[in-house]
Amino acid sequence: MHTDDRQWQDLIAEQAAQWYVAHRDGTLGTKQQNAFVHWLRASPMHVAEYLAIAGVARDIADAAPRDTTPLPQLLGGTGGGDRVVPIHAVTRESVFDRYSPHEHRARVRARYHRHTRSRAYWGKVAALALVATAMVLGLRWFVSRPQVQYYATGHGEQRSLQLPDNTFVRLNSDSAIAVSFSPERRLVEVTRGQAYFEVAKDPLRPFGVRVGSLLIRDIGTAFDVYRQDASTTVTVTEGQVQVWPMPPAPRSFGWLHGGQPARGPHERPLVDLLAGHQARIGASGVIESQGPADVDLATAWLQGNIVFEDQSIASVAAQFNRYNNAQISVRDPRIGALPISGTFAAHDVSTFVAFLGSMRGVHTQMRGRRIIVSGVAARKHRD
Asked: Considering 260, 295, 330, which residue would you say is the last residue of a domain?
């Protein structure tokens, strides 16, 4: 092989090593990602060198998992950093200084044709070209598509977590969210149940929470979202939020790419909520209620409590059923409609049932893991 051929291949090998290290460390911006794609497509030799470097790196990691020698030094040899091409040089300035892209491809093809003429070799080149195409398409898909993380709680379980931007999230029982962050925006979908958000401020990346056909846009705040089958309740504890209508969400969380509200001709939100206010919005997008709220009542679950004031026995029983394996069944509609008030620990079913049993005209009975609530008259009739 001629000296200039060897130098040319050495340069491409160095470029491939530098690209590999940059991808591994995650230091490439959009402009450099495009430069990498351009570099890959310039020649099958570039693809071959890049795949070879990736294979060497894996072999080194398997053979010496405890070796602390930096990967660039291992790939660049013992001669230090003199042979390493800076990342900014792995573009047209370093590869195409002497030749145009067309001339560069022609010279590479000529060298390959001159040094190896076998059909087997060109079969490998064709395969590498296909790999290059797949890499280009896969890279573009990966760069443009944010990664989605899923978090969920089981029956009776609560969970606290901190998102990558330092936003604090608390999930209530039987709840789930999908999280997708990108350089442009932060988006979360509440797929079921209830979640409380303390949003970290980031003026460059807006924070939004999607619930069905609604998008809750944060304006520096903390708020509670409770998604039910028929409606969604939003309670603001700090700051301010806006609730916008959204188009139906595509499958597989495709909405996370954009997260843009479906604005009407007046470009106004459905609801603009300040701290201490609450809104309940139906599944169809109709505002069912809006106004000042008892924030302590709405967020009592954060302290593991159930707080209710003039609520029906049936609705309170449904709240206890969210947290406990022992399920309360209210058999008598008349009893179920009676209003009650109180504060109970969410998992203290026995105390709540004792409270119900102390009410005039109410009878409770344990049947395995089910608690039957009925009227006294209904009990006498059964006896």
From this structure: 295
